[in-house]
Each structure stands twice: as structure tokens, then as C-alpha cells.
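Schema walk-through. Below, the input block comes first and the output block second. Nothing else is stored per chain. Lengths vary across the set, and this one has 482 residues.
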Amino acid sequence: MTGPGGFALAGMLLIPLVFAGLLALTPGYRLSARLNVLASAGAFLCALVLIQQRPAPNDYLFVDDLNVVFLVLNTFIGFTTSIFSASYIRHELETGRLTPVYLRFYHAMYQLMLFGMSLALSAQNVGLMWVAVELATLTTVVMVGIYRTHEAIEAAWKYFILGSVGIALALFGTILVYLAAQPVIGEGLDAMSWLHLVANANRFDPALLNLAFVFLLLGYGTKVGLAPLHAWLPDAHAEGPTPISAVLSGLLLNVALYAILRFKVVMAANDRALAPGPLLVTMGLVSVLFAALMLYRRRDIKRLFAYSSIEHMGIIAFAFGMGGPLANFAGLLHMTMHSLTKSAIFFAVGHVAQAKGTQKLSEMGGLTVTHPALGWGLVLGVVAILGVPPMGVFMSEFLVVSSTFARQPLLAIPLVLGLLIAFGALILRMQQVVFGEPKGVSHPVQASYVPMIVHLALVLAAGLYLPPALVTWFQNVARALG
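--- output ---
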């Protein structure tokens, strides 16, 4: 690949890969934290170039309107999370939860994880995408267990086992897609190319496509965290470092969702194949209702917001399952708003847990008194994720609900019910944590508030005004999704 777009794509992939090796050898917190931020910023700048400069596709990599949305969001949150990580990890080193050796491992794995996600999103080859998703999964598995406690290792193993089952199902689905494509396209790389698959999908055997999509939905759906395939997600959030919780909710779930959307486009191009929409709608609704009810029983603040992520991924899956220009637009917008908002919430939650020395909700209280910036930041984050106007999540949820009422009014009833149940649960827990008399210990925390403020400001700005260029971009992607 040549030209500005080709160099930008190569930079976005090579910068985190090169810095992963460099950070594995870099001793000392200050230098390694700064290098981590520098590498993440470089990858984000390269992704910005891809908005205007698209390289010509080859057998392995390509950039189009759909994946560039994910690439920009992925690298931006990777950059802001690296800034948050710097202050968060410093506290973990000072308290002895992390050693200098594990610090080097943490930073190297962080960049390798960003590389894996960017590679999955820019892959033109379905097999390469599968390998990249697996790489991103394995790096997050080892980072979930980095504290080496019994609970952290158990959570990492659960994530590894369930993730391996999911990725095995996705591999089988990918093989079935290749078997459906091979008689039409021929053997070799062309039969694994997204562009060739979509162009020739109408000639594929619909029975093979139907079977493939079921395996792909179950496999990648496990990594999206859709119920009942979600069991790994709450434990991974609760036991791993909070920057990884922010990346899991804000990025990795989106990468798996992107894979499902790509195969959904292939399915939609074959008019004899199974309609993928009803499957996504069903799993989305189940996830929303299940997670909303489970929010009331959470006693750990990170588990609480892990179930909130399951709920919102359900909303996004529901929107894409409904399909059509408006619902797809709403799904893209909600995915973006959820990623920005949920990562901002975890930025606050990470420092709250450090200030209180615990993640138990019962031992928190009065945060707006003891730590006003963290307390009010958490309030704003929860208000945003609940879809209270004028935050951007309100706009996306309103579009999802209104498009559902217009086309399938009966489906809107359980959807709205789930949203209301989740609203009550999070309001109840937020009041318990941020207001009232202070509870428990209150350690001073040197937090970096810039990432949280930037994310919440973007979510607020999106609720007030969406630039016409962004609207046009999302509309083009929504039409392409069918």
C-alpha cells in the first residue's frame, strides 16, 4: 500500500506492534507510561488520516466507511485510556499491587491488544480477522489475571475457556463461509475476501450460509457479551485492572460486534438465506431484559457497570437486527456513545475504588463530599449512560425506540421496559455511592480527570449537535449495512 492512506494504515498497525516490544524492555514507570501514551497517540493520528485518505484494498487489508468508524473510535479510546492508565497504574505500583516486572508486561500487552483490535478491524481476509480477534482476546485474558490473586486468575481462566469456546465456534462458522464461497469464487484468498464475498454472496449455497451465521453469531456473540453468552464478562471486569475494563467495554466488545455486522452484510446479499435480523433482535432483547434485572443484585461497582455493558450491547444488537437506514444509524450512534460514556465511567470508578480501597458498593458513600471531582464525574457518567437528555445516549436510544415503534410496535414494549428497569437500578446504586454520609476509608488519589472530562464533553456535544459531515458518514454506513 502506498500514498498517505497506505502509510497511515501501516503506521496504525506497526506503531503499537513496535512499541509493544520496546515497552517489554523498558524499566521504570515514568518512561514506560509516557511511551505507552505516545504510541497510542501515534496510532490515533494515523487513524484520523484514514478518514480522508483511503488506501487501495489488497488481499489482507482494506479501509471503507464501516471499519474506519470503528478504527477511529478504537484508537481514540485506546489513547485516552493510556492517559488514564498512567495515573491509575502509578497508584497500583505505590500500593504494591503491581511489581515493576508486571508493569513492563502490562504496557507491552496493552499495545499488543490495540494492535490486535486494529488488525481485526482493518482485515480484508476473514481468516486474518479471526486470528486478530483471538490475539486481542488472549492479550486481555493475561491482563485480567495480572494481579495474580485467586479471584483474578479464576476470572482469567473463565474468560479464556469461554472465549476459546466462542472463538472455536466462530472458526467453524468462518470455515463454512469459505466452503460456501469456494464453488463460486474458487480456492484461495479470493474466497476469504470481504469484497468478493459480498459481491458473489447471492450465488452461495443458502443452507451453508445459514448454518455458518448461527455459529458465527454464537462465537462472536460470546465476545460481544450477549446473554446468555456473557458469563465471562462480569468477572473479567471485576478482577482485572480498571483500564482493561474500560477497553473491554469501550472497544473489544465493538470489535466482535463488527465481525457479526460484516457477516450480516454477506447474509443480506443472499436473498435465499436466513434473515439475520430476527436472531440479533432476539439476543438483543434477552440481553437488555436480563442485564437490567441483574443490575439490582450487584454488590461490586465494577460488576454493576459490566452488566450495564451487557444491556447496552443488547440495545446495539437489537438496533442492527431491526435494520433499515434509521435503526442502523441509531445502532452506530449508540455504539459510539456507549463506548465513550462507559469508558468515562470506568475512568471514574477506577479511582473511586483506589480512594475507598474496595469495590464493594456497601462500603462507599458520600463521594461528592470526600472526592467531589470523582463523585460528580461518576454522577455525570451515570446520567449519560441512562440516556437522560441532553446527553448523546438519549439521542441514540430515542432513535432506536422510535424506529421500533414505527415498524414493530410490540417489540418496543419489552425494549422500553428493559430501559426503565435499568434506569431504576442505576439511579438507586448511584445515590448509594455518591450522596449521603461518607462511608469507609477515604484515601487521597492523584487522578487524571482529563480523559473522563473529554469523553463526557463529547457525549454531551453529540446530544446537542451532530456535525452534518458525521451524519452523512453514518448514513452512508447505515445504508451499506442493509
